[in-house]
Amino acid sequence: MKEFEFFTPTKIIFGRGSIHKVADEAKKAGTKGLVVTDNGMIATGLVKKVTDHLDKADINYILWSDIVPNPRDIDIEKGAAFATEKKVDYLIAIGGGSSMDTAKAIGALMTNGGKCEDWYEGNLKKQIAPLICIPTTCGTGSEVTHESIVNNTKTLEKDCIWGPQNSVKTAIIDSEMIDHLPGKILGSTGMDALTHAVEAYVCKASNILTDAIALKAIQMIGKHLVPAVKTHNEESLDAMMAASTMAGMAFGNSDVASVHSISEALGGFYDIPHGVANAMMLAPVSRLSISGNPQKYADVAAALGIDTKNMSVIEAANAGVDLMQKMADELEIPHFKDLDIIDPKDFDRLAKTAANADETFDNPVLMNKNDFKKLFEDLYNEGK
């Protein structure tokens, strides 16, 4: 058995209605908090659902909501300056991956100083400011990972502030926060969680602990994602929130792979939402990667609920990829060719960015620039 490390310092509070514990956690975190969220979250009433508990307990906090999807370095630096000016000493993130990644990055600049670009090499010196994360989607897993994905406005590519110092203090996982999440967002973020779990399991950096967690997450998502979107039943919403966090724990201690290499290139250049890009690319990239570890892809198929006992390993692996695409289609995930923003003139640059991404080297099959470019061309011309 190969050597590995598994690092999970975050306290996890799970359960419907568990959001009421936010005030107790805030008291432990510091004396003045910065609630990091976006205006869309405020409009839904979800932020008030949290701040009502803070107000009732006389918690001292201020609100900061200047967040955009695929958080940018300039916005993060503004947030850190605002936090310093207001003398806050801890943070509460309410939202999806953009809010949580922004809060982690703000926390990193609060304690380490400098700009985002100073900390892209896993070189943080100090633990980030104490952070409580409250996810409002079932996709990113950012509440338990040690990375903050940052859109570099100079290069139009995604960079990452990462390392054990970039860890969340407490995650409150309450499925009531997604009771009214629109089906399309629930679907794309759920497929994002599936991508995290699949890539954590099949990638070259996986280990025995991440394998166990990832496979269980895949099993739960296969059973509950579509019902969660179609019916919003409490059992499925609970399962999806748990599976998303589990997938985050898995890839945070393993890695992701070439699906993410592409989604980060697309997000950095076109600003395509991360969950949509992952959901769109999961099946096509998996199909190209089966030969690198067919047994693991067969395991994924079985975890998704396919009866594989009378199939060969390759047949099972392909059946699993077929089901991934079927799920994406049922959840109305767009196809690459259907996005108006896509321009074939950009394929060379996108392919170069994807090929150079760190996670590319952990994909079961090593993909080079030409492989990525051909995939873009094939998907763009699909059905033509």
Question: Keywords, please?
Answer:
alpha/beta; globular; Rossmann fold; 6-stranded parallel β-sheet; Dehydroquinate synthase-like, alpha domain
Q: Kindly provide the radius of gyration, computed on alpha-carbon positions and rounded to a whole number of angstroms.
A: 20 Å
| Pattern of helices and strands | EHEHHEHEHEEEEHHHHHHHHH
Shape: globular
The whole-number mean of residue pLDDT values reads 96
Q: N- to C-terminal separation?
A: 48 Å
CATH superfamily of the largest domain: Dehydroquinate synthase-like - alpha domain
* CATH top level class name of the largest domain: Mainly Alpha
Residue runs with pLDDT of under 50 for 5 or more positions: none
Instruction: Please give the count of helices.
Output: 14
Category by helix and strand content: alpha/beta
Query: Would you tell me which CATH topology of the largest domain applies?
Result: Dehydroquinate synthase-like, alpha domain
Strand order of the largest sheet: 1-8-5-4-2-3
Strand tally is: 8
Number of domains: 2
Q: How large a portion of the residues is in β-strands, by DSSP E?
A: 5-15%
> Into which percent range does the helicity of residues fall?
40-55%
Biggest sheet descriptor: 6 strands, parallel
CATH architecture heading of the largest domain: Up-down Bundle
